[in-house]
Every structure is written in C-alpha cells, then in structure tokens.
C-alpha cells in the first residue's frame, strides 16, 4: 500500500512539475505591423489583427506548450516607424514572426530589420514585386498578391479585349511605381501602347489635375496604380468628371471589396479587377467570411483572408518542426502545400513567393447584385504559375538558375 501511495505521489509530483514547466515557458509572440488609421486601414488594419487572432484561436491557442500571443502596432504609413516597430518587436518584445505590414514602403523597411535578425516575416497587404525579388530574404514570404500578378491578370485581359492604349495615375512610392512598371510591361508585350503617366502623392484627396491629364491623353484605359483611399477617391472623381461616360475605362490595378463598397456599384459597375480571394467563391470562403463578418461587421479582404491562412500555415509548421527556429520552420513551410479556403495547392517558392490561383472579376451592375457585398462576377481563374513572375525571371539572389 505504501508503494502504491508513493507511486501516486511521485506521478502527481511529475504532473505538477510538467504543468509548472509549461506555465514557465514564455509565450510565442507574433506581431502585426499594420495601417490602423489611414488609407489602408480597411484593407488590413484592425481586420488583419482580428484574422490573426482567429487563426490562433482555431489552432487551439498554444503550440509546443507555449501560449500564442498576437501583437499589433500602427505604422501610420511611415517607413521609418515600421522599421522601428519591427526592431522593437524582435529585439525587445520577443516576437518570433511578423505578419502583414500593410504597405510596400513600410514592408521594405521592416523586411530589412527581420532579415538582419534572421526572423520570419510574412507579407499579406503589401504588393511591391521587390519583396520577392531584390529585397527577398531566406525568411521572407510574399503571400497574397504582388504588382506583377495584378498587372498580369488585369492588364492582359484588358488589352486582349481591345483596350490597348493606357495612361497611368500612379501613387508616388515603391508600390505604385512597381505596379505601373509591371502593367506597362504587360500592355506593351501584348501589343498595346502606354501614352503617358502622372504621379500623385500618397493619400491624395483631390485628383482633378491628374484626371484632366489622363482625360486629355485620349487613352482607352486610365490605369490606377494606387490602392485604398487613393483608388476610391480617383474612381469617384473620375465619375464626377464624366470620364467613364466619355468612353474611357478606368482600371483599378489593385482594388478590394471594401473599396468597391465605398465607391458603390452605380459608379464601380463594369470595372475589371484582379483579386487573390473573394468571400463568395464557395462554401469554404463563405463559412470563414461569415465568422469574420460577425466580428468585423464586413467580409474580409484578400489581405485579411491571407493573414488567417499564413498565420495558420506558420503555426502548423512550428508544431511540425518542434521548434520556432526560423530556418527549420521555413523549411517545413516551403515543403508543405497550402490547402485551405484561401488557396488550393499553394506553394512557397525559394524566392518567398507563395504561388496560388488569381481571379479576374468584373464588378456587377446594381441590378445584378443581391445585396451589399454581392459585388463581383468571376470572369477567369488564372493558375498561379501563369499569374505570377516565373523563377527564371526572378531577381532574387536566393534563386539558383
């Protein structure tokens, strides 16, 4: 009897010791660097933080005996601030992985900090092709979309349909410049012509002088190489100027369902746009979007859906690897296909590009919509290996050719 009691006592001691040890383990922290209050807040912002938290909750809230914590900070669209936040998260707060980063200039800055520290950074909101080219790194993942993919899907379809002369309104920073450059290449390669371009400051409220130049060019398409509030304002003011009624097409080269909702179907109808995700594609996308909408009061953008998918993929890799060591986790992430509501057979390449299908949509007429957020008609599904830049074209130093 004494032996039995001592055995029970020893087992209880061992159990309490292992529980205490688990409680002693520091939390696994992941940090979002987001636009919480400016022109990209609807695209990423609080919705991206919510998506990350949903991914953690669905995963079970802990991994390797460590509680998972989601941090978020507002970079205010300032590259230097994004770099400082990344530095503080990685050096002082114990963050193991950074997600989203929301804009290209801020992403390029934060990416350099993560690269120098050998930490994983996953880009969901930014689009610059440089992130998987010149600025690529061994622990960098470009997950949702990029300027090459957006240009390829939208530009190609437009030129093939006869919309072969273009004029660009371009946001004057890395993302806008890359989007104009990549779309121009697609237009000219497909037999079209670029008649000119004009650059505008980030977060522009008055597009009148830029739109007058675009109108005067007589280009069939005015390509908007911008995003968020800039895209919304440019399209609204194009309608006020009667540009669409005058026969010119306005093509937003990066637009999200939140932008179309802000513009309204009356003005946005007929717009062609490329997206990585749409909430109403199938039962899986609808199920996730319903849960997201219960919290955020609107469906997720492709960037926010991508946050959920990428955070989940990261946590699964940590569990499978049995460690948070960046090199070991990245190896698992690159070896493991991504199959969820966001992507089917998605794959992270050696340059960090996550390759997945892209979609070409046309914005519905008001008469075709069944209600708010029912905004898109699917025109084409473009396989990932056709949508994104090939490895042969890559300028990433990690790519072996």
Characteristics of this structure?
single chain; 401 residues; alpha/beta; 4-stranded parallel sheet
Describe this structure in words.
The chain is α/β, with parallel strands linked by helices and about 400 residues long. Helix content is about 45%, strand content about 20%. The protein is built from 14 helices and 15 strands. The strands form four sheets. The chain has a six-stranded mixed sheet, with helices on both faces. Strands 8-7-9-10 form a four-stranded parallel sheet, with helices on both faces. The chain has a three-stranded antiparallel sheet with strand order 11-14-15. Strand 12 (about 345-350) and strand 13 form a beta hairpin. The chain is globular, with a radius of gyration of 23 Å.
**Number of beta-strand segments:** 15
Biggest sheet strand order reads: 2-3-1-4-5-6
The CA-CA distance between the termini, in Å, is: 71 Å
The number of helical segments is 14
Helix content: 40-55%
Mean pLDDT: 93
Stretches with pLDDT under 50, minimum 5 residues = 14-20
Q: What's the story with the biggest beta sheet? A: 6 strands, mixed
> What pattern of helices and strands is seen along the backbone?
HEHEEHEHEEHEHEHEHEHHEHHHEEEEH
- Fraction in beta strands: 15-25%
Structural class: alpha/beta
Tell me, what's the shape?
A: globular
Radius of gyration (Å): 23 Å
